[in-house]
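Standup notes
- DV: blocked on the single-chain target, sequence here:
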Amino acid sequence: VQLVESGGGLAQPGGSLRLSCAASGFAFSTYGMSWARQAPGKGPEWVSGISGAGSTKVYADSVKGRFTISRDNTKKVLYLQMNSLTPEDTAVYYCTRRPNPYGSAWSNFSDYDFWGQGTQVTVSS
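- DV (later): unblocked, structure below
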């Protein structure tokens, strides 16, 4: 199993970035996936999740209405479109695999088994 994030970088407040997570080594379309982030000096925060078929999408309150999760099961890629960025969005962003579709809350990290290496997002003027 391999998850490789990309697309991070520096953005200005109010700007946008699109993160990608390329998956390999498993049947991507059969797994729920999530994005999580960790800001400097803080614990990890779950950001958004999507079911295997893409029919269910869930968001943390902190990003609802600004971020959009999506996936392309043909290409085996997970995306996170981030709009209206604020400095509080600065963090390392990770994609992670959720093997149990009937698990507990999407934000429960114990339900995730593989993580990517992360991509840095910095929002600053």
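- Follow-up: The CA atoms of residues 23 and 76 lie 6 Å apart.
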